[in-house]
Amino acid sequence: MNKHPYGYAPDHIISEFDEDLRNEINEIWQLAGSYERIVPEISSNEVESALTDIHARLEISGELVSAGDKIAGWIQHYSRVLVAAIALIALTTFFFFVPKTAVVPYGEMGALELPDGTVVELNSGSTLIYSRLYRFTNRTTKLNGEAFFTVADHGHPFIVQANGVSVEVTGTRFNVRSWTDDPSGETVVSVAEGEVLFYPVLKREQHVVLTAGESSRWSPQLDQPSEPETLVIEDAAAWREHRFVFRNQALGSILHDLERRFDTTIELEATGIENSPLTAYYSQQVHLESVLDDICTVKGLRYTRTTTGYRIYR
Asked: Crossing angle for the helix pair 251-262 and 288-299, nearest 10 degrees?
């Protein structure tokens, strides 16, 4: 059979129909081929115009977002979230790991209650540092100065770290005196109630046990705190009543106490006497110059006022 594209239908198509329909199929095929095929010519300008129209329609409908724009938008959005999260974590870390600090100015006394109910009374010029996570992780404090502690019972032991030593308790009342500027570098612990362990930092096995009415001393020259000795706790913590009690205390240390208590400056211009011990007892509040009179009388010294405070000399 003729296979001309616009003549008879191809044999493989005709064979698909019943014999009585094949003539009709050929007629339809030839009729379809008689029409002229028209392929319209479309200019590049028309193509560009159509694409621009589609582009505008997609933009208006909000459906046109390229893959690059999607990625850039995602990065921009989540970068802000990530930066905010990092900032929040940093601030939280800073808040929890930067300790709280209580400072009592010269010439004043202060007290604070810690989160577990422990009360700390601080002498003039003293500083107490403790963690913001105090009570939850531990009950460790750091002292530079003098403080009287009334410790609340708790599961964690209460620890005072002061200039190379630790005082460990569970629930008691005691006084700690430990100044970084003390000429002797001495720390003195006096117990009013209960029991404490007193030992050099990292050498807990070198501890001494102190009970009510006992005191012990430690200085960097010692491997272990001194053996407990009896005392009158009211004298050890006389500062709480604005009194002075000095027992075999170095002159330089006494003068520092006076500077802090009266918020003044005292210059000692007599060499070789700063470590000279002195004992004095004042049962009530006393004026600074009364104490200086007594010191100079006992030690053969003189004093005079200066623009910033006092000067002691021979």
From this structure: 170
Report how far apart the first and last C-alpha atoms of the chain are (Å, whole number).
144
- φ and ψ at residue 114, rounded to 5 degrees: -80, 165
CA 231, distance to chain mean position in Å, is 39
Cα separation, 146 vs 123, whole angstroms = 5
- Taking the C-alpha atoms of residue 114 and residue 169, their distance in angstroms, rounded to an integer, is 15
Instruction: Check residue 156 and give its pLDDT.
Output: 85
SS3 track for 245-269: EEEEEEHHHHHHHHHHHHCCEEEEC
The helix/strand/coil state of 23 is helix
Amino acid at 94: F
User: pLDDT digits over 218-253, tens only?
Assistant: 998 888 999 999 998 888 999 999 999 998 889 999
In this model, does residue 72 exceed pLDDT 50?
A: yes
Q: Note the pLDDT tens digit of each residue in 271-305.
A: 889 989 999 999 888 999 999 999 999 999 999 99
Rounded to whole angstroms, how far apart are CA atoms 51 and 121? 83
pTM for this prediction: 0.70
Tell me what the mean pLDDT of segment 146-169 comes to. 93
- Spatial contact of 208 and 189, defined as CB atoms under 8 Å apart: no
Count H helices, E strands: the chain?
Answer: 7, 18
Rounded to an integer, what distance in angstroms lies between the CA atom of residue 54 and that of residue 242? 90
